[in-house]
Each structure stands twice: as structure tokens, then as C-alpha cells.
Amino acid sequence: MGPLRVAIGGLGTVGAAVADILISRKDLIAARCGRQIDVVAVSARDRSYDRGVDLSGVEWFDDAAEMAAYADANVILELIGGEDGIAKAVCENAIGAGRHVVTANKALLAMHGTPLAQAAERANVAVGYEAAVAGGIPIIKALREGFAGNGIFSVHGILNGTCNYILTTMRETGRDFDDVLSEAQELGYAEADPTFDVDGIDAAHKLALLAGVAFGTEVNFGAVHVEGIRHISADDILFAEELGYRIKLLGIANRTDPGVEQRVYPCMVPMDAPLAHVEGVFNAVVAEGDAVGTSVLQGAGAGAGPTASAVISDIVDIARGMVLPVFSVPASKLTRAQTVPIGSRAGPYYVRLTVLDRPGVIADVSAALREEEVSVEALLQRGRSEKGSVPVVLTLHETVEANMQRALARIAELDTVVEPPCMIRIENL
Amino acid sequence: MGPLRVAIGGLGTVGAAVADILISRKDLIAARCGRQIDVVAVSARDRSYDRGVDLSGVEWFDDAAEMAAYADANVILELIGGEDGIAKAVCENAIGAGRHVVTANKALLAMHGTPLAQAAERANVAVGYEAAVAGGIPIIKALREGFAGNGIFSVHGILNGTCNYILTTMRETGRDFDDVLSEAQELGYAEADPTFDVDGIDAAHKLALLAGVAFGTEVNFGAVHVEGIRHISADDILFAEELGYRIKLLGIANRTDPGVEQRVYPCMVPMDAPLAHVEGVFNAVVAEGDAVGTSVLQGAGAGAGPTASAVISDIVDIARGMVLPVFSVPASKLTRAQTVPIGSRAGPYYVRLTVLDRPGVIADVSAALREEEVSVEALLQRGRSEKGSVPVVLTLHETVEANMQRALARIAELDTVVEPPCMIRIENL
Q: In this structure, are residues A296 and A158 in contact, taking their beta carbons and an 8 Å threshold?
């Protein structure tokens, strides 16, 4: 077979790493693929910038969308980013011209995954997106190929390295969220505008893709219930430790009888759960299948090397002739799943209250919980009376979230409760 | 494309589970593959035995080797086992007749992997063996496809669920090896003849396959240094805990400048290493690549469901038209790696001695270590004087194994040392 011709749209750290590996490791990759892979075109904003890769003889395009349509390439890499605009044009032009697409763009696919998959399958081209979810971890390959004999009923995990780094550092140092976020920004582990990461949106993009490929359902980002980690305090992390839990921002997708649950929120996981030990910038994804049981895949969730590794695995698959349905079954057969609302969640809860340090408070709180049939498992009260208020921590037995929310609304209205209650779900994974 | 026709050689628990999934999940698998997968033939010893699967209309062969040669099938499953004999004949006949092979047989491939790969690639057929290593964990797929852009320099992990179950139970209960082994046999977690498992041979078979596919080297089971877990005592497990380690039987393959290291032995891993938390019958494999960094894949290492899941993923790949080089590069390009002998290992060590409870013993032991330039990191002495002898535990700073072995030989000859020294390597993974 002749060489596979690759055009790279976007020469940031990931694009440059992909070019570097494809060029410097040409022979090994050719041996693995049975054919050579050539970088034939690139597109980036600044042509003069030295990226440490020898791109002489490679065609340069100022406009990546134009490159996608006209470059003499079989595969177009979209490594530009953004849920619309140029990134979307690159993918659409590539597919329109009958070229395969490989992208690391979770936002784009979370918003437009189903129509892009339909277009790609009509054109009989691949859309590779291993790099879009959990960096170098081959979770899309595991779900779409490795577990193809399974009915998958859950896929969940730590999908955002920035949040996991912040939560790990908060636990290790006892510092507060804002403080650790600032440091993460200085260290380059968090963006100047951290919204996508700390508010859970990035994890939700990835979760929507995982749910689609795991369950064979249309990608439905709008159906993801999303909460971030800004409200987690150093106190919560300490109390979690005391109760035998660690706080992690998880993406959780479950296929249940009523439909599909898709949720991103910080939650407490038991210390002996595999996810409790995934720390710092690492990601991990748990898949539960009816034949394979529980599998955990763990690794670097971001960074130029791991992301480039995933991009290249998609290119290698294409070189080997693999063109699979984008979301595990043909796009025409993707089902539109019923969304299970967060109010239906059943599980235990942690609640931290800031209350006035006076008699009768616990009785009032207990009454509010009883009214909504929420039963208390444990109650912790610790000294530290600041300005006359003290933290009270409760864990609640398994209950339905709608009841929990009603109980919290009652509690928030109590005169003796001086701050909005902080509720964290407990996930006994 | 027409249906893919599958013949199943061996209807034990795995073969029956594969048949059950292929038949009961026919439509979902067809949607995922773009073509139907039909079970057309089976072979097993006892035709009358009810396996809970409806095999009416499926051709029956009394002889699996005959089935491999003559069944009207595209894919032959070898689920019989054994490193030679009928299993080997099934694979050879299938390849000879131009049929793809899928097998769960680690022993066969560890002994005959390279010639079988050569024959298969000449015939342009696949040999799938995802089920041969770490059960349902898609580690072969990860190494051969997911990490195809990487130079892999290490692959290591917990590859034998029986040993991991025994070590976990010893730690949790404080009981001795023989006692826990007997119980594991009663529970069906260990074979009546446990040799393959507890002496490390099964893990070594799997390691040889992992090394081949990770490094693109000829499979070389004979080059694996193998030690089992029979000599691990309840005391060792207690001391490990005290020192901040867990004892795990690991398979470790490293590609280094002098050549390839392939080793199976029980060792101490730090409590914060991912592998320390993989307990019971679970397996986990760590791969280290120069782009992706460190990835960990964890899951059920055995059992009918997980093994069937892996077998079906290989069948699905074949249905989708994937015929890859068996060990990641074409068999003709596999290199014959230099074997790095165990004597060259460099690392820290744990040694437990049983010594007479009298003055001067430590001085004698220290002198023996100094003679071989082995330096002591820590020394623990605990009461428990039984028959006048006491355990002494040492940890040694990083040293070369040859020196360590010479020091141990000196120590074993001391009059005050009353039992052969127990040495356990420390792996700071």
C-alpha cells in the first residue's frame, strides 16, 4: 500500500509533538502499519515560529479549512480547538472532500458529534477522537473495540486533570480552592480563564462522548448535569478524609432502565476505590460491562506527549484500514436515550452546615430531614467557633436526590443556619 | 459483507460463554461489526453435557484439529489449552487452511508464538490472543494499537490472579501460604495442582507475550527469570506493611540498553504505587511509553465472562477486517533481544533472617554485607524468640543482584543464621 498522507491543522504543542513523532519515528511506525505515514501539509497562524520540527518540504497553508479541502492528504488532523468556527470547518471540509479526520477536540464533538458522525459514515471516512477523552488513555478504543462483546452499563471516572490536581493539592496542603487555583495557574496546570475546567464543562464534554460510544446513543451534551468544584472547601476535604473518603470530580454515565444518566460533580469516593488513589493531573476511566466486569484505565489525561500518542494511534488505525462507526454503532442506529434527571439520583449524601453555636440547632436540622424522609447516618460537630458559628457535618443514608434537595431548602431557611448548606454526593463505586 | 463464520474448539466455561454471547447478543454485535457473526461449528469431548447454550444447527466435531482444518468457518477459536498437542494442532491446521485463529492459550503462544506468527502472516490470517494475557483487560490492543506511536520501554504488572488472591488473603488474615492455598483450592481460585500459578509459570507465559508485543522482539519464554510465592511467609507480609510496602507477584519486562529484562518474582511495591491497591483476583498491567508516559490497565484477569469478552473483541476485530502483525511488527522484523541476566538487576532488597538470639550476630551479618559492598538502609529486630531464634529484617540500599546473592551466600554460612535467608526485591515503581 502507498504511504498515508497526513495534513496537520494546528501546530501548538500537540500538533508539533505529533509532527515530531511521525517524522522522527517514521520507520518503526511504518513497520507497525505496513505502510509509511508522511506529513505532507501543515497549517498554523505563525509560519516563522520555530517549533523544533523540520517541516521543510511540507506544504504550508495559512488557512486550515482550505487545507482540509485542498491538501493532497488522506487524513486531516484538527488540533485547533473550539466548539465551532475554524475547527468545525476543518472537519466538515475534510469529510466533504472524502478525507479522514483525527481530532483532539472534545467540545466540537460534544456539540456536533452526531451530525459529524453521520456525514463521516456517509463519506466512508473515519473520525478519530481518542485524544479528545482522557489524553493518552486508550479508552475510546477499549469501549469501541476491546469491550465490543459487552453490554456496557456504566462508564465513569476522573476526566479533568486540572480539577484533580487542585483537589489533590488542597488535600495535601490543607489550603483553600482559590489559593490552589492561583498556584495551578502559575504552574500552567490551569488556564487563565479556568471556567471550562473548574466548572466541570470540560469533563462534561468528555463524558458526553464516553456515554455515546459506550451506550450507542446520540451524543447529548445538553443532558449532562454539571457541577464544578469551586464550592469545595478545605474543611470538606478534611471531613471527607475523616469519614474515609476522598473528594474527586467525577463524570458518571449510567445506562439504566428509565434511560441514561450523565452527571459531572465533585463527590466522595471510598478510600479503597481505585479512583481514590488517582491523584494529581492523572485521569482514570472505569468501564463496567456485563461480561468483562469492572475495568479501570488510568494515565496522563493531558499534555503534548500523551495527547500526541492518542492522535497517532488514530492515524495508525486509519493506515491499517480501520474505519469504524464513530460511536460504536452506525450513526443511523444511534438511539436517542431518555435523560434521567438528577432529582432521581439515589445514593448517600454528605452535608456541611455552618450553624450558630447554640442549643436546639441539631433538633431543627433533624426535623427538616425527617420531614423529607431523609435519614441521618452520622453527625460530626467540631469546635472551631468563629464569630459564634460552627461547622456541622452530616452523612445521610441512601435517599432520592429530590428529597435531599427539599430537605436542604428547608434547612437553608432555618435562622440558625448562617451559610448556604454545602452538599456533596457520596458514590460508593 | 457476508457473515463471519466461527468454529469453537473447546466448550469449557470460556467456550460456552463465548457461544452464549455470540448467540444471545447477535444483533448488537452485528451492528458494531457491520456484519453478522455466526457460530457454525463446535468441538468438545462430551457431546451430551448441557452447557446452557442452544447449539442446535451448529455442526459438531469430535476432533477439534479436524474441525480447524475442515469446518466451513473463517475463524477457529482454540479454547482447549496446553502448550502442545491438540491446541497446537488446532492452530496449525487453522492457519494451514487459511483461517484466522483466536486463542486464550498463553502457554502455547509463549512456547511457539514466533513460528505461529510467521505462519499466520504468510497465510495473511490473524492470530488473536487478547484473552491469553490478563483476561478481559484490553492490554494487547493497547500495546499493539493504542500505544503504536510510542517506544515502549517497560511493561509490568500483576498477571496471575491466583497468586494475588493468596497474597491479599495472607495480608488480610495473617495466615500462612499453605493454609491460604488450601482454602483457595476449595474455593476454586486455585487448581488442584497449583504449580503453574504459585510458581510463577503462568505469569511468565503472559510476560513473554507482553514483552514480544511491547518491544517487537521474538517471544522468548526461556529467557524469563521465574520465582514463585511459596517462600513468602506471613512474617514477610507483616514486615512489608510495617516498611510501607505490599508484596505482589509481578511480571516485569524492561527494554534497556544492554537488552531485554524479563522477570517474574514476588516483590515489595510502595503503598502509593497503583499496583499496591490491586487486590484479590484482579490483574493490572502498567505500560510505560516515551510519549504516553505511564498507563495502568486494571480488571478481571480470569473467569469465563472476562475471558469471553477478550475472545469476542478479537473476533470483532477480524469481522471488521483487522489483520495485524501478531506481535506489533511483522514476524520477519521481530528482533532477537539480548537477555539481561538477573544478576545485573540493580535495586533495593529486603532480607529476612532467622538468627540465634545472641550478641554478635548483627556484626557478623553486617560484615558479610560489607564484604560484598551491600549497604544497609534499615534493620528491624522483633522479639518473638521461638526455640532461641529470632527474625531479623534488613532493607538494603540499591545494589547489584550479583553482589546481593554473594552476600546472601556468605550470610547463609554463618553458624548463627539457622534458616536459609529469605530475600525479596523492592521495586519502587
A: no
Q: Which residues of B294-332 are buried (b: 16+ CB within 10 A; e: fewer)?
A: bbbbbbbbbbbbbbbbbbbbbbbbbbbebbbbbbbbbbe
The residue among B77, B295, B323, B332 with the most chain A CBs within 10 A of its CB, best to mutate, is B295
Let me know: does B55 contact B42? Beta carbons within 8 Å. Answer: yes
> For residue range B247-279, what is the model confidence (pLDDT) as tens digits?
999 999 999 999 999 999 999 999 989 999 999
Distance CA A306, CA B295 (A): 10
CATH code of residue B263: 3.30.360.10
Question: How far off is chain A from B124, nearest CA to CA, in Å?
Answer: 13
**What's the CA gap between B314 and B307, in Å, rounded?**
11
Q: Where a domain ends, among B300, B329, B359?
A: B300
pLDDT tens for each residue of B193-234: 999 999 999 999 999 999 999 999 999 999 999 999 999 999
Nearest to A392 by CA among A417, A359, A413, A371: A417
Q: Quick check: B293 and A272 CB within 8 A?
A: no
Range of the domain at B365: 344-426
pTM for this one? Answer: 0.96
Task: Write down the pLDDT at residue A420.
Answer: 95
State pLDDT tens for residues A122-164. Answer: 999 999 999 999 999 999 999 999 999 999 999 999 999 999 9
Percent of chain A with pLDDT over 70: 99
Contact B309 A150 (CB under 8 A): yes
Same domain? For B186 and B231 the reply is: yes
Same domain, B227 and B167: yes
How far does A167 lie from chain B, in Å, by closest CA?
Answer: 17
Residues of A in contact with B313 (CB under 8 A): 145-149
Q: Is residue B179 assigned to a domain?
A: yes
Residue B206 known to be catalytic = yes
The reply to whether A17 touches chain B by the CB within 8 Å rule is: yes
Residue from B141, B206, B248, B333 carrying the catalytic annotation: B206
Residues B152 and B296 in one domain: yes
Residues 359-418 of B with CB under 8 A from A: none
Q: How many domains does the structure of chain B reveal?
A: 3
pLDDT at position B386 is 61
Chain B residues inside the 8 Å CB shell of A150: 309
Determine, yes or no, domain membership for B318.
no
Question: Same domain for A113 and A154?
Answer: no
Residues A63 and A119 in one domain: yes
Residue B103 and residue B251 in one domain: no
- Do residues A264 and A301 touch, judged by C-beta distance below 8 A? no
CATH number of the domain bearing residue B128 = 3.40.50.720
CATH number at residue A396: 3.30.70.260
Residue that terminates a domain, selected from A132, A154, A171: A132
Chain A residues within 8 A of B31 when measuring between CB atoms: 216, 329-330, 333
Confirm whether B322 is domain-assigned. Answer: no
How high is the pLDDT of residue A189?
A: 87
Is residue A257 domain-shared with residue A393, that is, in the same domain? no
Shortest Cα distance from A316 to chain B (angstroms)?
7
How confident is the model over B335-348, as a mean pLDDT? 96
Work out the minimum CA distance from A411 to partner chain B, whole angstroms: 39
B297·A296 Cβ contact <8 A: yes
Q: Helix, strand or coil for residue B103?
A: strand
Indicate yes or no: CB of A295 within 8 angstroms of CB of B291.
Answer: no
The model's pLDDT over A333-362, given as tens digits with 9 standing for 90+, comes to: 999 999 999 999 999 999 999 999 888 899
Worst-scoring range by mean pLDDT, A48-57, B71-80, B311-320?
A48-57
Answer yes or no: is B311 within a domain.
no
Amino acid at A147: F
Of A149, A290, A329, the CB nearest to B31: A329
By CB atoms closer than 10 A (0-12, 13-18, 19+), residue B235 is: middle
Pair A145, A45 in one domain: no
| pLDDT(B384) > 90 | no
Q: Which of A211, A239, A261 is nearest to A426 (CA)?
A: A239
